[in-house]
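Colleagues,

For the teaching module next term, I've prepared a clean inverse folding example: a structure given as tokens, and then the sequence designed for it. I'd like students to try predicting residues themselves before seeing the answer, so please don't circulate the second half yet.
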């Protein structure tokens, strides 16, 4: 990861220091987390076939998925309507008959 330009003086002489970035020219400090969250917001989520997913899309499960902490199994071929994309390891938030679930995009294909 390259260090971003300083948001105050726009020079690129910056370095990471603990949880912040620091500009060596003007001394301005800003948190690294803000930069990481902006990158996550701009991340593209793709399904198992490489199709780009967007909020509101309908998807289909490509394999049976066991629900952690439950005896419930989400069956292959189940269609999920109106997904919502979120950040993190499980990129897709959806509601199905069995409740609300967070799913990984690699187990879905666009319908």
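(Answer key — instructors only)
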């Amino acid at each position: 990861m390259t260090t971003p330009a300083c948001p105050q003086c726009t020079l690129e002489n910056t370095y990471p220091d603990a949880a912040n970035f620091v500009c060596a020219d003007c001394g301005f400090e800003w948190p690294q987390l803000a930069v990481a969250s902006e990158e996550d917001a701009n991340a593209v989520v793709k399904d198992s076939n490489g199709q780009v997913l967007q909020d509101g899309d309908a998807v289909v499960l490509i394999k049976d998925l066991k629900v952690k902490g439950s005896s419930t199994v989400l069956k292959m071929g189940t269609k999920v309507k109106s997904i919502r994309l979120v950040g993190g390891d499980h990129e897709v938030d959806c509601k199905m008959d069995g409740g609300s679930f967070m799913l990984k995009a690699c187990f879905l294909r666009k319908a």
